[in-house]
Amino acid sequence: MNKSTVARRAFLASSSALISLPFLESLRLGSTVSAAASASVAPKRMVFLGMGYGVTADRWYPDVDTVGENYEIPEILKPLNRHKKDLTFIQNLMHQYSADGHSGSTFWLTGANRYGIPGQSFNNTVSVDQVAAEVLGEQTRFTSIQLAAAGDAGASGDGHGPGLSLAWNRSGKPVAALNTPVAAFHRLFSNDTTPLAERQTRLMEQRSVLDTVLADAKSVSRKLNQTDNHKLDEYFESVREIEVRLAKEEKWLSLEKKVPTDPVKEPGESLEGYEEIRVMYDLMVAAMQVDATRVFTYRMPVNSLISSLGATMSAHSMSHYSAGERRDVSQSRDTAHAKLLAEFIDKLKGSKESDGASLFDNCSITLGTNLSSVHSLTNCPTLVAGGGAGIKHGRHLVMSDRKTPLCNLWLSLLQGSGIGTESFGDSTGRIDELFNA
């Protein structure tokens, strides 16, 4: 194989797309959519809110000796008191494979073993939101929506860890996020003013590029070793995901995006931290109102959040609290999350579905992170709300096994939301206590 052949097969480009082949050592030189949901049955929705760098562990959890309904919401979370009957705190959940004390989000929704593949330094698997989206997202314009914080994207010490959002696809690859409120606003509600015929042509060009890429890649597969064929299979899977997305876009191309009854104003460009979270929550409510999507993940800001609350230290410094200013900042962060979540729930309860129920009644919300405090990866902070998964709320659950798989919760939420799966990640079964009074 000559140098020009390798160069030609390394990538293919058109005026509308550029798709690169993965690095293959064998090629080294010298070696169906419905436009709206049924009006009679309100759809299920799922929201996953990732906090990154843990919580103030000795203040965030309810007293371990007060389980069931007879518990008090911790003082730093008091803004949630008005929703106590609609919340569930769960203790003693963890991921058995967790080993990175600076990654509160990377494996939070997957439970994967980072070192699960011999010889590789990083491995991930599909996240629970993407499993849910395969079912809940069939009838919506967007299969799922990923949100993140621009201020913390890729930042050292943000506490989230590797990834572009909380979401990971079937190949264990990161799913990109909308990382500003204004980007999310335009994606969800702004219509493309380009003439329909021109948009159709653009999609046809993208399809043509994909066809050429697949044909070209298949022509070299027989020349590859086993390792490279595995990489190429992952590449084909990524291309197939693009094909599915393009097919869905084509079906929605001629349908204008819906606008909520109470329109959301275009957010400012410079929003960060506390106000950014508030606006992202408003956008999620609005998206649910028009049924733009039914699955959301939000990798929330950490550094910019505490900065917006007046802190002058980094999130990493805050996470190593003991007493004094670091502890004060950590607790103020926790209280800010409680205030914002309480407001979010207020708005979901105040927004009615076509069947008379509220958005909150048909939505499950999970707030949490893979880190509990400092570098601790046990007893992952976990708060669940909403009626969408059939959970009997108003309780504090403490699992008898201190190493109960967090994936048991993900399996419970999937099954409770009507998604037929018998397992997820390293789950050992559903958490029956969530559904039994």
Q: What can you tell me about this protein's structure?
A:
By secondary structure, the chain is of the alpha/beta class. It has helices at 3-10, 57-60, 128-136, 181-189, 196-221, 226-252, 274-289, 303-308, 315-319, 325-349, 406-416; strands at 11-13, 18-20, 45-50, 87-91, 93-94, 145-148, 295-299, 363-368, 382-385, 395-398, 404-405. Strands 6-7-3-8-9-4-10 form a seven-stranded mixed sheet, with helices on both faces. Strands 1-2 form a two-stranded antiparallel sheet. Strand 1 and strand 2 form a beta hairpin. It starts with a helix and ends in a 21-residue tail after the last helix. Residues 1-23 and 25-38 have low confidence and may be disordered.
CATH superfamily of the largest domain, by name, is Alkaline Phosphatase, subunit A
Count of helical segments?
A: 11
Number of domains: 2
The string of secondary-structure elements, in order, is: HEEEHEEHEHHHHEHHHEEEEH
CATH class division of the largest domain: Alpha Beta
Low-confidence stretches: 1-23, 25-38
What is the end-to-end distance?
Answer: 68 Å
User: Main β-sheet, in a few words?
Assistant: 7 strands, mixed
Note the beta-strand portion: 5-15%
Per CATH, the architecture of the largest domain is 3-Layer(aba) Sandwich
Shape: globular
Which whole number gives the mean pLDDT?
Answer: 86
Main sheet strand line-up = 6-7-3-8-9-4-10
Secondary structure: number of strands:
11
CATH topology of the largest domain: Alkaline Phosphatase, subunit A
* Percent helix: 25-40%
Structural class of the helix and strand makeup?
alpha/beta
